[in-house]
């Protein structure tokens, strides 16, 4: 596998007023291979945005090593900048510009041929709305416009921080289809999100971060399999007698109204045999596979809270007078809440 992103031992501490310190990233590792759609999961405040910002040269790391396409960054950021499209935080756009004009200006600024504007509008499904003012766009359309801006340069790597944030289910589905189309076209995608079900549906690989450290990584199926407790939902007459019998056979049993949950049984046939031998005929035997949500909760002990305010220092990239800013390679929004 040729690696597109390599991060080893990344560390970053923020220093606030009164000597307060906030360790945001604490020796974090990340490896993303070419062509992957890689999910980057973690609870609020676990260090996702800081990691992405460090990787993009928007914040200076205290330690560790980062490479993009094999080039050390931030040292050689300029060499790879044209190959990376990124959206970190909800981008801001000028409301009275049309989507088309917004992208045309960005294309001009970035030396991108104007024909790309129509191409990316088509790609993100905004072609029919390109001549409408951005102020009339829904949140989902703004997100797509942001992705379009990141795609102008035909990047080989797309980094998106919470692209599905605030989208309704239809918007999320559209975003998912777009990610899949991009991956099919050979683009590597790194996607941070707290929408675990979506990550499971969209991504082939995942890395989970908790308190600034990596707690799991690998192909989604492998990460899930590593947390399979071999549990089964079992429907059986005389559940109390059945539970006692299974416990005596060394299995973990939880009794629920109308069914049992039996753990520690890699082979469901074993449950059925144990019960059948005692005249208890199983009427339901369903494997309970872990999903990313249960793995995430087990590993991080936290549940992602979509409503918590985000804490990101966007000042370095704010436009004049703190106004909206759009950068061709990196689009950053959000408010500064240092030491809050
Ligand atoms: N500019 C800053 N100044 C001070 N502390 C910061 C700054 N940026 C981030 N932090 C702190 O660093 C930690 C990691 O924040 P970060 O934004 O990277 O987490 P996150 O995983 O992206 O969270 P979320 O999902 O809420 O965006 C948090 O405790 C946060 O408060």
UniProtKB/TrEMBL annotation:
Protein's name according to its UniProt entry: ABC-2 type transport system ATP-binding protein
Family affiliation: Belongs to the ABC transporter superfamily.
Domain of life: Bacteria
Domain ABC transporter: from-to ranges: 5-236
Taxonomic path: Bacteria, Bacillati, Actinomycetota, Actinomycetes, Micromonosporales
Pfam name, any one: ABC_tran
PROSITE patterns documented for this protein: ABC_TRANSPORTER_1, ABC_TRANSPORTER_2
Keywords associated with the record: ATP-binding, Nucleotide-binding, Transport
GO molecular function, one term: ATP binding
Keyword ATP-binding carried by entry: yes
């Amino acid at each position: 596998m040729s690696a597109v992103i390599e991060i080893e031992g990344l560390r970053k501490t923020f220093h606030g007023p009164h000597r307060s310190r906030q360790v945001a990233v604490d020796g974090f590792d990340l490896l993303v291979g070419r062509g992957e759609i890689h999910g980057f999961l973690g609870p609020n405040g676990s260090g996702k945005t800081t990691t992405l910002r460090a990787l993009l040269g928007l914040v200076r790391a205290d330690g560790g090593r980062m490479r993009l396409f094999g080039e050390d960054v931030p040292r050689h950021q300029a060499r790879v900048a044209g190959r990376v499209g990124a959206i970190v935080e909800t981008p801001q756009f000028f409301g009275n510009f049309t989507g088309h004009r917004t992208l045309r200006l960005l294309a001009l600024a970035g030396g991108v041929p104007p024909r790309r504007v129509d191409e990316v509008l088509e790609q993100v499904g905004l072609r029919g709305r390109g001549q409408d003012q951005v102020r009339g766009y829904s949140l989902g359309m703004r997100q797509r416009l942001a992705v379009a801006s990141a795609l102008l340069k035909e990047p080989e790597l797309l980094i998106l921080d919470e692209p599905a944030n605030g989208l309704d289910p239809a918007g999320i589905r559209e975003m998912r289809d777009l990610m899949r189309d991009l991956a099919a076209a050979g683009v590597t995608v790194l996607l941070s999100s707290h929408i675990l079900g979506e990550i499971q549906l969209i991504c082939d690989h995942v890395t989970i971060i908790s308190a600034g450290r990596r707690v799991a990584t690998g192909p989604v199926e492998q990460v899930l399999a590593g947390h399979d407790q071999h549990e089964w939902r079992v429907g059986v007459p005389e559940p109390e007698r059945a539970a006692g019998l299974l416990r005596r056979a060394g299995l973990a049993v939880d009794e629920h109204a109308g069914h049992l949950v039996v753990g520690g049984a890699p082979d469901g046939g074993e449950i059925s045999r144990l019960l059948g031998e005692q005249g208890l005929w199983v009427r339901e035997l369903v494997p309970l596979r872990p999903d990313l949500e249960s793995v995430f909760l087990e590993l991080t002990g936290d549940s992602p809270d979509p409503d918590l305010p985000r804490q990101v220092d966007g000042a370095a990239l704010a436009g004049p007078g703190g106004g909206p800013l759009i950068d061709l390679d990196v689009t950053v929004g959000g408010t500064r809440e240092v030491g809050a």
